[in-house]
Amino acid sequence: MSLTFLPPALLLLASFVTAFAVSQNGPGSARSGQPMAAAIHKPGWELTFHDEFDGSKLDTGKWIDSYPNNQRTHSNNEQQYYAPDGYAVSGGQLRLKAERRPMGGMPYTSGMICSYGKFAQQYGWFEMRAKFPKGKGYWPAFWLLPVTREWPPEIDILEILGHEPDKVYMTDHWRGENVRDEHQGDSFTGPDFSAGYHVFALDWEPNALIWYVDGKERFRMTEHIPHEPMYLLANLAVGGDWPGYPDATTRFPGSMVIDYIRVYKRR
Question: Taking the model in full, what pTM does it have?
Answer without folding.
Answer: 0.87
